[in-house]
Design brief:
Layout: E1 6-11, H1 24-41, E2 45-50, H2 52-55, H3 60-66, E3 71-74, H4 82-90, E4 95-101, H5 103-116, E5 120-124, E6 128-129, H6 133-145, E7 149-151, H7 153-161, H8 169-175
Parallel strand pairs: 1-2, 1-4, 2-3, 4-5, 4-6, 5-7
Length: 177
C-alpha cells in the first residue's frame, strides 16, 4: 500500500445522519486525523453523499479536509457508483481506505463491491460507526469475513509511511496522540 496505488473513499459522513450515530463525534475526529495524514502522504480522496437532499451535505469538519476532492451524490448504498469506479480505474487503484457511515449498510456494501473487484480494502474501525454499536460490530466482522483488513487509524497511516525516514513521518506522527 502506497500513495500511488491507494485511494480513500469518505462514505456519507453527512450533517443530518451524524446525530443518529453511535459515538459520531469520535468517528469524525478520528476520520479527520486520517484525512490530514492522507493529505500529508499525497493519497487521493473522493467522497460520497447518500441522498444529500434528505441527509444533508458532508459535515463541515470533514468537508474542510477534502480540498478539491470530488464529492459524488448517490442513492445506491454502495459507494462504488460509476463515478467512483471511474476514479479507481483512472488512477489504477489497488488499495482502498474507507471512512464513513453506516458501517452495516453503505460501508459494508462498499467493502463487498470493492472486494468483488479484487481490491484490497482497509477499514479503520475507529473511522466508522452505525446507529447501534452491535450493528457496527457485526458489520466489521462481515467485512473481515469478506477479506477486508479491519484496522485502526494509526495503523493505516503508519502502514502507508512504511519507514520513519518517510518525508511525511513528522507530520503524521504529530497527528497521532
Amino acid at each position: 500500500m502506497n500513495s500511488e496505488n491507494t485511494l480513500c473513499i469518505v462514505v456519507d459522513i453527512q450533517e443530518r445522519l451524524l446525530p443518529a450515530l453511535y459515538e459520531a463525534e469520535k468517528m469524525v475526529e478520528r476520520s479527520r486525523i486520517v484525512l490530514q495524514g492522507l493529505q500529508a502522504l499525497g493519497v487521493p480522496l473522493v467522497a460520497t453523499e447518500q441522498y444529500p437532499k434528505g441527509l444533508g451535505k458532508t459535515t463541515a469538519a470533514v468537508q474542510l479536509l477534502l480540498g478539491d476532492a470530488p464529492v459524488f451524490e448517490k442513492t445506491r448504498f454502495s459507494a462504488v457508483i460509476d463515478e467512483v469506479a471511474a476514479v479507481l480505474a483512472a488512477k489504477n487503484i489497488r488499495n482502498v481506505i474507507l471512512l464513513g457511515a453506516e458501517a452495516h449498510v453503505c460501508m459494508l456494501q462498499t467493502v463487498l463491491d470493492l472486494r468483488a473487484k479484487g481490491l484490497a480494502v482497509y477499514v479503520p474501525f475507529d473511522c466508522t460507526t452505525s446507529r447501534h454499536p452491535d450493528n457496527k460490530a457485526n458489520a466489521l466482522q462481515q467485512m473481515r469475513d469478506a477479506g477486508a483488513v479491519v484496522s485502526n487509524s494509526e495503523s493505516v497511516l503508519f502502514q502507508l509511511l512504511g519507514d520513519a525516514k518517510h518525508p511525511a513521518f513528522k507530520t503524521v506522527s504529530k497527528l497521532i496522540q
